[in-house]
Design a protein that fits this description.
Helices cover 38% and strands 19% of the residues. The chain is α/β, with parallel strands linked by helices. The termini are close together.
Length: 478
């Protein structure tokens, strides 16, 4: 089986969020199962020099895009059993931030057209499946099924929705001049949505299989609260839809070897976790009191992450005599709220308004609990990382959070964390109080819960097997 991933980011070359983690780890897991895997990425200027220096230049190509032909350099890097291709065009990709530019539609139309063209013209390799991810690569199946259909008749497409909130909405005037696609794609409804273009909708319609990053999220997308206008489209393609839970890179996220930690530990040496908490408290100016629960949040500061629930209950939360550490950036009102809380609750609240991966890992290792009260969470990686580091999750039952965090049952000791179903501030505070009460009231039960979480298998092995099943289903190949 030959699989080509087309992604707008992949760790360790480029990353802004969960997509980067998935695109960096899943191809390696598939290669470990003896699939032939290659990946295509933009050659951003943020790609570290240590990888650039290992790349081999394969040649220059000119990619048709609307009325113009655009240069594309092709570079190759072999690493971890995977061949990584990097598509170079400095006008489109030599910019500071990966996303958020005025011409993102044109940038990723170029990337999608180039990926589709080059996938069909590699001299020694032809993919059975092209696996695309999110709106930035949604035009790949569109080009394959229209302008390149005579050359791509034997290639199947999989499209993964990592977050349906970002669909690639653009004005219909881009269809011909910028994307170089026929008007019929708009008039027949394939790309049309409320009078404009919707790239994700087109990819869902034209791909051979559609996946999301957790089973619950796939079910949720059939409802308007989660579907963001595409719930009808998702329901219509249910025959080819699959929800496959993400994994995490258990080699990267390993408290026994993680160089970011103050002290390494494992489930068998759980007592060493305490020193990480003490040293984190000292680093952040928190009172190093023994027995006080430390609650962590590593999150983008946005309302859909459940921060309005935190805002509604913050004072009552702090009345539980806990310490709270928040790491993240985002909407101004939440940033300011947490800065104010740091002033009001000196020695008990730390607001780290930044993106700091090393500090985040110290928090995963040093916190007792991780709070994730998300309104919607396609999969979520933080809760899985936290459990691997012996930090018990407190989450809302949505998307991948529901699939990974089973509610704790005190009578039997079963479960993985503390959960609530309704999007309600009082319900969230209630389960936080349950977690705090167990932490303070039964140290042995708390340790057993945390150690059991550390031993859970969140690797990509099982997920990779499920993706291979999808590939076999749509290709008919072993």
């Amino acid at each position: 089986m030959k699989i080509l991933f087309v992604c707008s980011e992949a760790f360790p070359f480029s990353k802004t969020g969960g997509l980067g983690d998935v695109a960096g780890a899943l191809p390696i897991a598939l290669a470990a199962k003896r699939a032939g895997v290659r990946v295509m990425l933009p050659l951003y200027d943020c790609v570290p020099e240590e990888y650039r220096s290992q790349m081999r230049f394969l040649g220059a190509h000119y990619i048709p895009l609307g009325w113009r032909n655009v240069y594309c350099g092709l570079f190759e890097l072999k690493m971890d059993g995977v061949i990584w291709y990097f598509l170079d065009n400095e006008y489109y990709f030599k910019r500071g931030d990966i996303y958020g530019h005025f011409d993102d539609a044109e940038r990723y139309a170029f990337f999608s057209r180039a990926a589709a063209e080059l996938a069909l013209s590699l001299p020694d390799w032809r993919p059975d499946v092209i696996h695309c991810n999110d709106w930035q690569t949604a035009l790949v199946p569109v080009y394959l099924r229209t302008l390149l259909s005579d050359r791509a008749w034997d290639v199947r497409c999989v499209f993964t929705i990592h977050n349906i909130e970002y669909q690639g909405h653009y004005g219909s005037e881009l269809l011909g001049d910028v994307f170089g696609l026929p008007d019929s794609l708009f008039t027949d409804g394939t790309m049309e949505y409320k009078g404009d273009l919707n790239l994700m909708k087109a990819a869902v319609e034209l791909s051979d299989a559609v996946t999301t990053v957790s089973p619950t999220y796939m079910e949720e997308l059939r409802y308007s609260f989660y579907g963001h206008g595409l719930e009808g489209v998702i329901a219509h393609v249910g025959h080819k839809a699959h929800g496959i839970l993400n994994g995490i890179d258990t080699g990267l996220y390993d408290p026994a070897t993680d160089l970011n930690l103050f002290d390494n530990f494992s489930a068998d040496t759980f007592e060493k976790k305490a020193s990480n908490k003490t040293k984190l408290q000292k680093l952040l100016g928190l009172s190093p009191r023994k027995g006080i629960p430390l609650i962590g949040m590593v999150t983008r500061l946005a309302a859909h992450k459940g921060l309005d629930l935190v805002a509604a209950t913050l004072d009552r939360l702090m009345e539980l005599d806990v310490q709270v550490v928040v790491i993240g950036r985002g909407e101004w009102n939440f940033e300011q709220m947490f800065r104010n809380a740091e002033e009001v609750y000196k020695g008990r609240f730390s607001a780290q308004i930044m993106y700091n991966p090393s500090l985040a890992m110290k928090l995963y290792a040093g916190a007792d609990m991780l709070l994730m009260p998300s309104q919607a969470e396609p999969c979520g990686l933080s809760q899985m990382i936290a459990m691997r580091y012996g930090t018990v999750p407190v989450t809302r039952e949505t998307g991948g959070l529901k699939d990974t965090v089973m509610p704790y049952i005190a009578e039997t000791g079963e479960g993985r964390g503390f959960t609530f179903a309704n999007y309600n501030a009082d319900d969230m505070l209630y389960v936080v109080r349950q977690a705090v009460d167990l932490y303070r009231g039964d140290a042995a039960a708390w340790r057993a819960l945390a150690e059991a979480d550390m031993r859970l298998d969140f690797s990509w092995t099982q997920s990779a097997g499920q993706y291979l099943s999808v590939y076999r289903e749509i290709t008919g190949k072993k």
